[in-house]
Specification:
The complex is a heterodimer of chains A (about 325) and B (about 140). Chain A is α/β, with parallel strands linked by helices. Chain A has helices at about 10-20, 20-35, 35-50, 65-75, 135-145, 160-165, 180-185, 190, 205-220, 240-255, 265-285, 290-300, 305-315, 320-325; strands spanning about 55-60, 85-90, 100, 115-120, 150, 170-175, 195-200, 225-230. The radius of gyration of chain A is 22 Å and the shape is globular. The relative contact order of chain A is 0.13. Chain B has about 140 residues and is α/β, with parallel strands linked by helices. A 5-stranded parallel sheet of chain B has the order 2-1-3-4-5, with helices on both faces. The radius of gyration of chain B is 14 Å and the shape is globular. Classes of the chains: A alpha/beta (about 325), B alpha/beta (about 140). The interface of A and B includes residues 33, 34, 92, 95 and 108 of A.
């Protein structure tokens, strides 16, 4: 496979991923995460196809038991969803850029199950609890036939709410002793969660923590339909109830996602797509004119604004770049 | 921090019944500090290692042995890699590797063997070089 790794076009990768080849799917994810030209084109293709899939976000502080809970939930949810994709995000080192991706250590029970595809992602400096390209990877998993995609965020504090924009139903997992009612009424991640879960209910403080959360929900009056649940992953208590609540909310949320862009934001979307494509083309190009331009820029012999405009000019003139983009 | 720079992706693994995790964690930290993305799992069956390596699109598999099964487990993983068309994915083995384990491990195609006391810089350099060649980077 080594030799073919870079020879495979995005279209071929996508076709094989759709046909259920896990290696093609895994490599497509890598390309998207790396923002390569192939990855950008894959991202645009899968967003356009926007296959419908149910999505569940799981967030909460480090050590609350998100990975173990997901491991248990996969077992509860597999009868309902034929194939489940799981994305687990862990932080990248701000010092080296490396990462230890240790979430799937807790999900070993599903390693051998072909109906479960788990992928660990490094946040690579992206704030918000997920990665820069998580939405595209969700769409890729959907196109590849996953009926449910579970997204586990990095261990979050109070304001990492990006997963709320990416998923239909959001689970906030707390451990007993997360704080008092004052913590529970603060703005942030507790507001965007649909289900508040107190995990490790086998520990002493679980009732108190659940009470703080329920009090917060009560203060919000009759319009509040969210619930707080106690779960013990360790003792396998409360899992069936939680899975039932998740499925009920997924059904409520079931409005189809649209691949087509609304008229309102189409210009902004075009700008974003173009910027990503241009970035990848310029990063990967072997065109001596552009490489020379970069050298001039490094030498300080050309203003940055002029260099950028000249690069755009070179791309526009260079028919090969355009066909390079459309061929793949 | 450049968030699209391709990073070496490495899978480090040991058996779920082997509780000796200090070595594997030491290596994981050293590789993390060398800017690699390190996936950790405890396998139940040797074949699971290949499924995970495939889903995670890693460039190198590192297997830690602190009790038994050095040769048999490695052979099973190599066979599964072949079965799934990943036979050139490099394997590094570390831990308690007895002298008589070495010939069959080499024969199975293990790229490198590290025992206790091996300099971390050698381990890191080996993983980095294997990742580069697997990805086709000179």
């Amino acid at each position: 496979m080594t030799g073919t790794r870079h020879l495979m076009t995005p279209a071929a990768l996508l076709e094989r991923a759709r046909a259920g080849d896990p290696l093609a799917l895994a490599r497509a994810i890598t390309e998207i995460e790396n923002g390569s030209l192939a990855g950008v084109e894959l991202g645009l293709a899968v967003q356009e196809q926007a296959a419908r899939t149910a999505t569940l976000g799981v967030t909460g502080p480090p050590g609350a038991g998100k990975s173990s809970l997901i491991n248990a939930l996969i077992g509860e949810l597999l009868p309902r969803f034929a194939r489940i994709g799981v994305l687990t995000v862990d932080p990248s080192s701000p010092v080296s850029g490396g990462a230890v991706l240790g979430d799937r250590v807790r999900m070993a029970a599903h390693s051998a199950n072909p109906c479960v595809f788990i992928r660990s992602l490094a946040a690579r400096g992206h704030l918000g609890g997920v990665t820069r390209t998580t939405r595209k990877v969700i769409d890729l998993l959907a196109v590849s036939g996953m009926e449910l995609v579970i997204v586990e965020t990095v261990g979050t504090g109070q304001s990492e709410v990006e997963v709320a924009d990416l998923t239909d139903v959001k689970l906030m997992v707390c451990a007993p002793g997360m704080g008092d009612e004052m913590q529970a009424i603060k703005a942030g991640v507790l507001e965007v969660a649909d289900l508040l879960v107190v995990n490790k209910a086998d520990l002493p403080d679980a009732d108190r923590t659940a009470d703080f959360l329920r009090a917060m929900l009560m203060h919000r009056g009759d319009a509040e339909h969210r619930i707080a649940l106690k779960v013990s992953t360790l003792r396998r208590e409360g899992l069936t109830e939680l899975a039932g609540a998740i499925c009920a909310r997924l059904e409520q949320a079931g409005s189809p996602r649209h691949g087509a862009l609304g008229t309102g934001n189409s210009q902004a979307a075009l700008a974003r797509d173009t910027a990503e494509l241009v970035m990848a083309i310029i990063s990967e190009t072997a065109d001596p004119a552009i490489i020379g331009l970069a050298a001039d820029l490094a030498g300080g012999t050309i203003p940055r604004r002029d260099a950028a405009r000249m690069a755009i000019g070179l791309l526009a003139r260079d028919a090969e770049c355009t066909s390079l983009a459309s061929d793949k | 921090m450049h968030d699209t720079l391709p990073r070496p992706r490495v899978l480090l693994t040991k058996s779920f019944i082997d509780s000796h995790d200090r070595a594997i964690e030491t290596i994981a930290l050293a590789l993390r500090d060398a800017a690699m993305e390190v996936v950790l799992i405890d396998y139940e069956q040797p074949e699971d290692v290949v499924t995970v390596a495939l889903q995670e699109d890693v460039d190198v598999i590192g297997i830690s042995f602190m009790s038994g099964g050095q040769v048999e487990t490695t052979q099973k993983i190599v066979a599964e890699l072949e079965r799934r068309n990943l036979s050139d994915l490099p394997i590094v083995v570390g831990g308690i590797i007895r002298p008589f384990d070495e010939p069959p491990l080499r024969e199975a195609g293990v790229a490198n063997i590290f025992r206790g006391g091996a300099p971390l810089s050698d381990v890191v350099a080996t993983f980095a070089a294997l990742s580069r060649s697997y990805r086709g980077i000179a």
